[in-house]
Known about the structure:
Low-confidence stretches: none
CATH architecture of the largest domain: Orthogonal Bundle
Number of strands: 7
Order of helices and strands: EHHHHHHHHHEEEEEE
Helix content: 40-55%
Strand order of the largest sheet: 1-4-7-2
CATH class of the largest domain: Mainly Alpha
Amino acid sequence: xxxxxxxxxxxxxxLLRLEDLFDRTAFFLEQSSPLDHQAALWGLFEILEVASxxxxxxxxxxxxxRQRMFLEGLRSNPAIAVDKLEAVIGExxxxxxxxxxxxxxxxxxLRENEWxxxxxxxxxxxxxxxxxxxxxxxxxxxxxxxxRHADLETWLEPLKxxxxxARILLRVLRESGKTTSLVAYHGVxxxxxxxxxxxxxxxxxxNRHACVPEISANKYALNIRFLQPGSxxxxxxxxxxxxxxxAYCNLSV
Length: 253
């Protein structure tokens, strides 16, 4: 089984991008080769770009507080597992406090590092970080893995609160999903209007179908086409019926 997530707002799109970037950066950070640590540094630069758009910190704080207040209202619900509820509320309160304590613009510590910003600027040029372009960076890459790891951790640490907040909100969003089993006849499924309002759709399909969903959704209609993967003609729809599960996920408002 493979799950595809389709965000229905820019806010959720940003959270998903941050989650992916933090996961990728963390993976390469734990490796030891210069190329792995270069990939981790590139991931750090991408996190900086995404986290700096708009007033993300304020939006995360507001969303964490909104979700915490909603969950607080569930304490008296006998159908709710109190221990799990308390744990989630505690995570939200902790993430809120850490995020609130961060001073200045997100990633300001990186922007004030002239050496890093020079590398970031050169990284936008294909092959722009060769040793003859940035000898000091070449020297850093050829230092000890432990030293590179320590530097990367130092640079990443002030951004981790953003990643933690994003993960918590995405977990709450995913767990809110209401799943429906559906069939796309001859690879096509349409619903007008969309059955439920949602912030994100999660579509799960068996790999045996060998197809990729193309999703288009708004409050007026939901359209899903299952395409043949890797075909020369991108829009070629699979001819067989495809059974799949669709979850409508919402953050409480």
